[in-house]
Give the backbone structure.
Amino acid sequence: MKKYISTIALAAVAILGSSCEEYLSEQLVTGVSAGSFYTTAAGFESAVNATYSETKFFYGPERGFSMTVFGTDVHTNGADGSHKMLNLYDGGLNPAQAFVRDTWRDFYRGINQANATINRSQDIPGLSEQHKNLRLAEVRFLRALYYFNLVRFYGDVHLSLEETQGVEITANRTPAGQIYSEAIIPDLQFAIANLPNSQSDYGRATKPAAEFLLAKVYMTRAYQSYGQGNGDAQEAERLMSNVINNYNFSLLTDVAALWDINNQRNAEIIWSIQNNKSQVDEGIDGQGHRGHLYFLMEYDVLPGMARDTENGRPWKRFRPTPFHLGLWNRAIDSRYDKTYKHAWISNNEGNIPRWTAQDAAAGHIPSNLVGERKFAVGDTAVFIPGPGKDAEWTAARKARTRYLVITDDVYDERWYPSLNKWIDPTRPNRQHEMGQRDHPLMRLADAYLIRAEARIMLGNTTGAAEDINVIRRRAAWPGMESQMEITPAQATLDYLLDERGRELDGEGHRWFDLARTKKLIERVRLHNVEAGPNIQEFHILRPIPLEQIDRSDGGYPQNCGYPGANC
């Protein structure tokens, strides 16, 4: 297999910190030999830190969101972007597709970095065995994450636990079940045995993070023919119970507090990918979190509005499906109201509309208001009532309202409800793409929902309902907690997936959730108008990149259904 690894010129990992707290960071080291530098204590630490770097190419930039949000039941494509084939499942989703190729390439680069760090860790002067095992546990945690993503996306893939130096043109295609049993699970078991409950360097892997990841691994394998079904579900339940009960994590009282950019290190976060504001703004970190770009409608061309930092730079990539917008009962559930934007406040006097004679003739305004501006800077300019509220806005009411009201009858690829979780008003200017937000890959709410999923598989619907209700009570408007609770009879896999859609909206889990539970084809056909006509059974896996096929001696087998497959 052709893999590329820079000798030691490693991409910087920037982890959010403050003046009084430690955070994981990495210095760029060049002009040295990996063979000698890796075998020093300082070199070993840099090699470990570099293994974290590959998380930042996927978690936060457009690629990771596109690979996990597009082509699901809850999000479809907006007006812009060149990767819509990931949503449309048309001929553009082929072995040459850039995001499919780059995801393969970068995770294998991370695996090779991990392999190099592990293989060169013997007999390092001045390094205790305990500290070495701690750092190796971090590396093996990351290698497991990278392989887990690869098998979830591509199925059977190349397995190597040895460092590649230079170019290789031979490759194996190891069955996914073997990769779970020989790489992913042993790596995470080692990590659990050697990682501490917490680390002073915020952002490093920990024991509960490894338990969380292993629980997801078991829950994913449980659905597969090579898995152990209930046995895997039992392990997932046990591990998530450890995460929930045996550490100091707790759900935040208010859902909105999770997305306060000044509250990113909170009691609900188990493990997150870090971004450091100063390094992002100064260009030292070339990635940063860019989720603030992708879920926004084109507000900046509407009356009374101009693009600004507070409202974000709208790239119009991902818009919610009508099915998704119908998941929340807003009378009792606060999550839609707390994570979607409703009002845009005017910031541009130059394009504020004026009342016309036609408005007066229609009886919408007194005649003395003709020619007057409808509103002023600082007033509401645009309002989206959102699901369940549109019927309140008749055409007549909208016509006599000073500001623009966008209801579901006019939603399209440019204007639609906008997810607000990733907004980053701290960026240095309105055009700046890289944000400082962390990417919370593991949080306690997800732990409860994965445990509920395991319990559903095991037939324990009472326990599953209890877990789901923990999340739903937290999401309730005050006084509505009992109305939010479900019964054991309601605790089905489909209900669980709906609840994951409500709770984990836009956080990069949805494609994995549907593929894991074998619900991808069914739900996309039912709920994604753009994707439904094209999606086929083989789309449960992504195509093997053409680059991998072309550069492997004798070729490399393509996943069934895609061009070049021999199935």
